[in-house]
Amino acid sequence: DVKVTQSSRYLVKRTGEKVFLECVQDMDHENMFWYRQDPGLGLRLIYFSYDVKMKEKGDIPEGYSVSREKKERFSLILESASTNQTSMYLCASTLGRYEQYFGPGTRLTVT
Amino acid sequence: QQQVKQSPQSLIVQKGGISIINCAYENTAFDYFPWYQQFPGKGPALLIAIRPDVSEKKEGRFTISFNKSAKQFSLHIMDSQPGDSATYFCAATSGNTPLVFGKGTRLSVIA
Q: Which chain B positions have a beta carbon within 8 Å of A43's beta carbon?
């Protein structure tokens, strides 16, 4: 069965902290994505990666960075968390460019 | 060009009724149109998808209608059930770019 796992379901951090969100997929997928989901705004793409060591900016990359050292793992980094980064963060992966499999999400609260 | 516009934002349907959610796009290069279903506390999951060479695709109670000339596609849920209550996202891609998502429709099916 297809599996995308995210390191935490809920996370509370303080303003200015460095935050790491981890995503792992067990499907040998080449492509991985990070989204944030906010009410009324839908799913907004932060960063994506089509290969190891490769990364591309999505629609809202400001304040975020990513790391992909291994094919199965894609990390989202908030260098200095701010309250406007309080959101639900979703990781996804695909083999080709089409069907995406999503993880369960991490609800991040920055206080 | 890259946007997918989804309506309505929320929808309340009686049990047994038909739920209809609409999406419109501008980019004629899009060649894959999926719908995702998301239950509270879960990541989105692929529900049904269509390519522009067909005008309709049906899977059980779920049907996608596709109008290439109007650049519109819609999801119809027949005999809607309370268990269908969820948020639905349409999306589109050309395969060369990540999925572009609509902003979502929150469906409530009431008994």
A: 44, 89, 101, 104
